[in-house]
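Worked example 2:
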Amino acid sequence: MTKTKGLLVMDVDSTLIQEEGIDLLGEIAGSGAEIADITSRAMNGELDFAEALDARVALLKGLPETVFTDLRRQIHFTDGARDLVETLHDNGWKIGVVSGGFHETVDMLAKELGIDYVRANHLAVENGHLTGRVTGDIVTKDVKLASLKAWSRELELDLSQTVAMGDGANDLPMILSAGVGIAFNAKPIVRKQAPYQINEPNLALALDIITEVRGGL
């Protein structure tokens, strides 16, 4: 059995996909502008992420759980997403996603691309409708970093053999801890600190960075 050659862990909203899933849910709930404002402030590091998530999820109370089927039709993978995942898989890598969004959406996306690891938030549902609360641990910046470390240990990889990529402030700890940390079309606070940047909406460009830094895939 060939040992895994590397691990890529990336954010989902505005990284793996073009949209912010919770903002789309907000539009459906009639609270789009308010939720989008909170999202922007949280991703810029102006608000505590857990508190910002609670505030946004509260505005989704009453939506039917069937909303996620409709939501999937509004979500688009970022250009190069499939190429990135397939190329790394072909070269013996594993892929993980860590999201401040929700399993109800992220699991569908991960299944479509064959992603190996998933960590996201769970929305509470009662009688077929969202309660306006999340259940379990919230995926914060610390949880994102912990996931990177846990998956690398499981694969018997050193952190130097990992790549982390995202756009928001809650992605910074994992970006700074990975062997290759990439800010993807990121907020200013992330671009300022990340070792590498991609400022075009094409995830496949990460392959060039990984190849250059590691001397190959």
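The chain has a mean pLDDT of 95. Strands lie at 6-10, 93-102, 117-126, 129-135, 162-166, 180-184, 196-198.
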